[in-house]
Design brief:
Two copies of one chain form a homodimer. With 681 residues, chain A is mainly beta. Chain A has three domains: 74 residues, no CATH class; 443 residues, YVTN repeat-like/Quinoprotein amine dehydrogenase (Methylamine Dehydrogenase, Chain H, 7 Propeller), CATH 2.130.10; 120 residues, Cupredoxins -  blue copper proteins (Immunoglobulin-like, Sandwich). In chain A, 11% of the residues lie in helices and 38% in strands. In chain A, a hairpin with a 5-residue loop joins strand 8 and strand 9. The longest helix of chain A is centred in the first third of the chain and has 13 residues.
């Protein structure tokens, strides 16, 4: 065959390129990509109008309204331009965290938490320990239901360092490190099997608060439902966070025993309300269901009363009581009993209408807004008035002897918004935004008192409603649950999409809609529909992207992402070897670099226990390798500098090709090796 | 407490709304949402210019170029407008399929395949059987590496009914039903542990072809690497598809034993080349690696030769040989040996430069384009010339005695494009598009011969290159690998994003870029950057959305998605009950409707085996419920009408609240019940 037309001379060049560079445009290690590179404005081809002829044609062709055009231009992100905000969304029963850029509304990545996820190499050799630490009754769970992410705070504001998120399905809490966007810890709550899946950080992240949901006996021990009032309980758990170690300090964590009122969302106060926490409840009726027995179903039984109880917790007093040893242990975990709560003045109630879903703290830490769900109002509580009522003992008692403050004494205002108010966020102009589930709208209304001067609208009033599509649950404003909201955008986390998107079968995506809320008055504009078909976000927190300082690569070669330090066990280049430790144990030390693993041949005997170490010795941004082994459920994602270690038993003889799963270079397909399991003779 | 301000009268209204409607805007069952509802064009506020003043301000404010504006307007989707195309993308080592709308480039949903996914309820009580059927050596794998989706075809064109996708990590094949976008079957290849993860449907979907990747002994039995040439093999497996049953018919499937040349991607011919299949190889050197022994690494050893072998398979002849019983069984599976391939004239080779990655068939089925990877050309083979060379026996023999056709006799043209050509797609204007990995660009070039008249450019020529960001792997044009491409758009599936997106840690997303290729000449425009941080798509197929006819709800109440028929076991309203079958077995029959489960109390004894049936008796579009049990790893997603059944052992006494995980109504939070496991006395 003629080879004249085959440029063999090119081989050296291409191979070289493949080995050394792999891909164009790498940043030096340690540098941070520069966001928002300004690009030169080109003179329009249509000087008078300011918009190009092409664009007008497209507008007509695609039948876009002027509002559509404005919305498109507000959200479009030219190649290389970075989003201004990052939204950390829960993903519901997908069990993860979803990171979305605003205003483009593009999913930048997910963070695997409770559910193994193989693209990130979570739970397939790496992260297994973390997942296993969250076992329920000794059984490893491989999914979770995430609802409320909680970013770590300093002086009440997001500091961009840690993210906490709970699992509603099993009452667990997770810690995510925002240096590498990976989950570092999962803890199982020893006294509860139900919570709302919320994580609320105190203003300096001393504690992460996890509130209960469905009443059950503490430690979910068996007790007949007939004993509901006496044996079933709720809880609020205070997880101590050790910022140095980046871990929940279980030893210094504790819980409050609460009546079985089905607590819902909690929120933490700051400023004047620093040291206090507020939570809803939805079943003070203490209804126990049983539709199959001819009784009303839960949905109506728990909705009979006009009010439930806002829980008002003095968590500093709780902390003190805990430190003074005033607790009992349940399943080994410190619990402050109802009696202690009463004695130490830790817990108060106030009536709240009516099976409400959310309680949200206004930016000044002065008002607590309860969204009525089955009541069309938001009810605004004044912290100052709460303190006065407590001081004046202006209360009655609930069946457990807990003080119930007088409603009129503690309520500042009530604003009627519409059907199905669920959650509230705030901006810096004195506006509040509440989701109306049944009206399928976002209501903008005004706070009063010190907020009145921030906007031209009358206080404590509904200003306008914008329809959303459809049936909104939560909503999120950048920094909207902190002392300093940045109310430029609002994301409506709608539950039903119905007809919004091309059909994809009977399981539809949700619809997250971006709104422009920068103006005053009723002027809120719908900007963008974002289908959400990889999970069901409930709440999300939105943070300015420049507050995050994630790594581009691990700081040094051999970095263990679990200890966040170099590991003494990590093989570096030159350390590659295969060592037989004993008759039944082999230890492998491997490195990965574009485009080969070393060693390429790994042989063990059938039945060997194999301990396998692998380090990526890359330094460049985006130079990620994957490593897998077929038949042993191993899949690692190895970022630049990262070290991983996994173990398994080579229980079946055979020849198993391993390869790099993450496309890394021109010769990525050739980045492979063989794992031989020889039969024992 | 005063209740004057609490509108109790509203209770009835809201509760009613919550119970009966749940949410606004439901479509009647069975109807299909109407796509692309036209919206009235509003007169611009700036008549002469045609674009609103607001928009011009935004353009300046955000420093958008005219091209940016055009791109934004081409891709923006107003609320309720449906995408024109659906892209079914692989997700790499996430193990799933990702469904993306074009031109908006929004993820509509994922389809869980090889990796359990709890939002869709896949692998947590439902789908476990399907996943288990793909076990490797009796061990259930919970991840996969998906590379090449294959839509089912009729006369070579996408018919929108089925989607096939293979698992590169373990050599498996999956079948997805596009009526409900769910995985119905996973089969494990009995003779191979390595494949490329590709699924290629023959023109009428008689077979799905799965080609091998890394050479290993058949059935991955142990053999020393020294025996590579004699004991290690490749394969091409032909899975028979039974369209009636919607399943791979394993009994009528077979494989070809191939030399251990590391086959890569296969493609199937149509029209003149109907009955033939074409596949690459990358290691005809039969290099076996061993960098740790001082030998060159695989990446260079397998790249030494100027050419590898294009595999040319007469699959109709292979089918005939199989049906005539001319096979041997390996691990129980029918294999046509190398000898048979030779005797029955099934397999031919042609030299192809140089470790190529893709072979793509032109729309007329007349040319096969090989992208050179380490050679800067695409090499175009003529099927007519291949047939002539075969007839004339114009060949030499490879080491296994397989005919290697003369290169010059079968090549129609070679076009030099640039560095790192990987894959090619086509449009209806006679253009071809090839990804250039190292150049980080898409090359547009022209086919010749019968295609010459379709565009004004000269044939067999490079016309232009558009940079992409960065390092493109595959590319996809709507219907671009069929007889009738619709070349309006092209998606570049780029591997590295580097600086394109806000930093999210050391594991970056990929970047899928949408290009406008509707014009002629060199005019291709970059439209949209889509971050991809939930998996790593390799190839994708793009189909017109109107060709898909997914269900909005299951056709009847009690529908079993696995049999795609009503199940006799499915409880309907009135059938709810709990039945003790024996001392150790309890069977539960439950229904779900907004907003309650029935029964709400389920009690068993510790140690009971529990069989649980649940039917959603909903009919409305988007009325989905979730069902979970804590502590038993159960999470189901139950679409309207769907019936599911799961089993587990209630191995620990306690009280376990269950609840609906998918937000379904105003009283969603109240849609719960209790699972009691009473200690056995």
């Amino acid at each position: 065959m003629r080879t004249a037309c085959i440029r063999t001379a090119l081989l050296g060049t291409i191979l070289q390129a493949g080995l050394l560079a792999g891909c164009g445009g790498g940043e030096p290690s340690g540098s941070t990509a520069q966001p928002g590179t300004a690009r030169p404005v080109r003179t329009s081809t249509d000087g008078a109008a300011g918009l190009p002829v092409d664009a007008r044609k497209v507008m007509q062709e695609r039948n876009l309204s002027p509002d559509d055009v404005t919305a498109a231009l507000r959200t479009y992100m030219p190649s290389g331009r970075h989003d201004d905000f990052l939204m950390f969304a829960s993903s519901g029963h997908a069990g993860q965290v979803i990171v979305i850029g605003l205003p483009s509304m593009r999913i930048l990545r997910t963070i695997a938490v409770y559910t193994p996820e193989s693209w990130q190499g979570w739970g397939f050799g790496a992260g297994n320990d973390v997942i296993a630490a969250g076992a329920v009754d000794g059984k490893v769970m491989t999914w979770g239901d995430t609802h409320h992410p909680g970013l770590s705070r300093t002086k009440g504001e997001y500091d961009g360092q840690w993210l906490f998120i709970a699992d509603k399905a099993h009452a667990r809490m997770a810690v995510i490190d925002l240096r590498d966007f990976e989950t570092k810890q999962i803890v199982k709550n020893p006294i509860a099997i139900s919570d709302h899946g919320g994580a609320f950080a105190t203003p300096d992240t001393d504690y992460i608060i996890q509130g209960g949901q469905y009443g059950h006996p503490l430690a979910w021990e068996y007790a007949d439902i007939e004993e509901y009032d006496t044996r079933y309980r709720g809880h609020a758990t205070f997880w101590k966070f050790d910022r140095q170690r980046g871990r929940i300090d279980v030893e210094n964590s504790f819980a409050l025993e609460l009546p079985p009122y089905w607590q819902d969302l909690f929120q933490v106060g700051w400023g004047p309300s620093d040291g206090w926490s507020f939570g809803n409840s939805i079943n003070t009726e203490r209804y126990t269901g049983g539709i199959e027995k001819g009784r009303p179903p839960f949905e109506s039984g728990v909705s009979q009363s006009d009010t439930d109880y806002l829980h008002i917790i003095n968590w500093r007093a709780a902390e003190k009581a805990f430190r003074d040893g005033k607790f009992t242990r349940v399943n080994g975990f410190p619990v402050l009993t109802l009696d202690t709560l009463k004695k130490e003045n830790i817990l108060y109630f106030a009536p709240e209408p009516k099976s409400p879903h959310g309680v949200d703290v206004a930016p000044g830490g002065d008002f607590m807004v309860v969204s009525g769900k089955l009541d069309p109002h938001v009810t605004v509580y004044s912290f100052a008035k709460i303190q006065q009522a407590i001081a004046a003992k202006n209360w009655s008692l609930d069946p457990y002897g807990i003080p119930v403050l007088d409603f009129d004494a503690v309520v500042e205002a009530r604003v009627e918004l519409g059907l199905g108010p669920l959650h509230t966020q705030f901006d810096q102009q004195g506006y509040a935004y509440t989701s109306l589930f049944l009206d399928s709208a976002v209501a903008r209304w005004t706070l009063g008192g010190p907020y009145e001067k921030l906007n031209p609208d009358r206080p404590w009033s509904l200003i306008g409603k914008t329809p959303v599509h459809y049936n909104i649950g939560h909503l999120a404003v950048p920094h909207g649950d902190t002392p300093k909201p940045e109310g430029r955008y609002l994301v409506a986390l709608n539950k039903w999409s119905i007809d919004r998107f091309a059909p994809v079968g009977p399981l539809l995506p949700q619809n997250l809609q971006l709104l422009d809320i920068a103006n005053t008055g009723a002027n809120m504009k719908l900007l963008y529909d974002m289908p959400m078909g990889i999970g069901e976000p409930h709440y999300a927190q939105i943070i300015r992207a420049d507050l995050l300082k994630p790594w581009n690569a691990y700081p040094e070669i051999g970095w263990d992402p679990h200890t966040q330090a170099v590991s003494p066990h990590a093989p570096k280049q030159g350390d590659e070897k295969i060592v037989r430790r004993d008759e039944r144990t082999v230890e492998v030390f491997m490195t990965a670099i574009r485009s080969h693993f070393k060693p390429e041949h790994v042989e063990v005997l059938e039945g060997d226990r194999v301990i396998w170490h692998v380090t990526s010795v890359e330094r460049a941004l985006d130079a990620v390798h994957g490593f897998m082994l077929p038949g042993f459920n191993i899949m690692l994602s190895i970022e630049p500098g990262e070290y991983q270690r996994f173990e398994f038993t080579a229980d079946k003889a055979g020849v198993y090709p391993f390869y790099c799963t993450e496309f890394c270079s021109a010769l990525h397909l050739e980045m492979m090796g063989y794992f031989f399991v020889r039969p024992r003779s």
